[in-house]
């Protein structure tokens, strides 16, 4: 467990590079993990005003039979339409940021490891004490997405919507290279945590 208080680490990287895996390793070492995508799914897209706005913009096809937002159908619409994607982000991000503030304020002594896919794209660096980019080669990135069942065309679309990985690496305070074993990634996480406790 890290002893210093108030540390918030923003974890980003390309889709399929292993952000969630790395965040889980911080969690094993005593950090409170916050997955922004899951937070949006469970706490933002479930709000009645958000669902109503999405239905008004995209029609009833993006809602499941139970009235919940069908994230697969919604993704198919927005990742092929940049204007629609920007609209969705402008709708959901302010709510997400409010929930972040509430979570951080409720547990001021907690060490946070926050997964933020669009950390640099949305210029969210100031939310965090340190930023970490989880990276791997483009070939492995695509292979992992295909292993998840994502068609290559959709995988390439998702990657193209994000800042190039090389730029994320350049902008991050620290980089975790996720091409080896899980043990190798955990060693990098442990070394980083040890160095941050010294820095702090």
CATH architecture: 3-Layer(aba) Sandwich
The tally of domains stands at 1
Query: What is the rounded distance between the termini?
Result: 14 Å
What is the typical, i.e. mean, pLDDT? 90
Q: State Rg.
A: 17 Å
Shape: globular
- Summarize the helix and strand pattern as letters: EHEHHHHEEHHHEH
Q: Indicate the proportion of strand residues.
A: 5-15%
- Secondary-structure-based class equals alpha/beta
Please report the total strand number as a whole number.
Answer: 5
Helices and strands, with pairings:
Layout: E1 8-13, H1 19-28, E2 32-35, H2 36-44, H3 48-58, H4 71-78, H5 82-106, E3 112-115, E4 130-135, H6 138-147, H7 152-160, H8 165-171, E5 174-177, H9 182-199
Parallel strand pairs: 1-3, 1-4, 2-3, 4-5
Helix pairs in contact: 2-5
Provide a descriptive summary of the structure in words.
This protein is of the alpha/beta class and 200 residues long. It has one domain (8-199): 3-Layer(aba) Sandwich (Rossmann fold), CATH 3.40.50. The protein contains 9 helices and 5 strands; from the N terminus they run E-H-E-H-H-H-H-E-E-H-H-H-E-H. The mean pLDDT is 90.
Report a brief summary of the structure.
54% of the residues lie in helices and 12% in strands. By secondary structure, it is an alpha/beta fold. The mean pLDDT is 90.
Task: Kindly list the characteristics that best describe this protein.
200 residues, alpha/beta, Rossmann fold, five-stranded parallel β-sheet, 9 helices, 5 strands, 54% helix
